[in-house]
Fold this sequence. Notes:
This is Two-component system KDP operon response regulator KdpE. Helix content is 40%, strand content 21%.
Amino acid sequence: MTRVLVVDDEPQIVRALVINLKARRYEVDAAPDGATALQLAAARHPDVVVLDLGLPDMDGVEVIRGLRGWTRVPILVLSARHTSDEKVEALDAGADDYVTKPFGMDELLARLRAAVRRAEPVGPDGADDLVIVEAEGFTVDLAAKKVHREGRDVRLTPTEWHLLEVLVRNAGRLVSQKQLLQEVWGPSYGTETNYLRVYMAQLRRKLETDPAHPRHFVTEPGMGYRFERG
């Protein structure tokens, strides 16, 4: 069973989420604040975290950074904050998706399922001849879902990995913004280009020698992105 950690200080929201998630056979833990959330995450190892940003003891972005220090668990942010800057800050800290309050339960559950799918390893049926991709400066192991740079593993979140995987499997070809959004985040996405900007910046920061002048993750303005081996 999939284990969900719900982090929110509004009891009615927690109750609604717990009821709906358990009805769909999820296991659910709940935390009313950031400190409890970090403790529960370490003890229970959830498969996905649903996180409110407005917590009583610390900002939710701090919780994201705390989790990202040791785990790649998918993080779905749930918040009443509407501005683009605040969404980008959460995504930049390592969140995988962002749902604005008030929200529809069906949409939230669909996004949660998508976040869990992105984190699942690809089985043998999804394997093909393209397993190890050598780029100048780093290596992508598609089978093991690992990236090595300068002899070290590069830590990627599930969403960062999924975006990298789509680009690498289409090496040398332009992948449109809409295609990337729909493949990585799901079919209901297509216009959230700020997600792509944030995650491409993170991939460049982690993998490019000079992120300001990328050689591997190339932007085609207004069209999409292209991966070049070097």
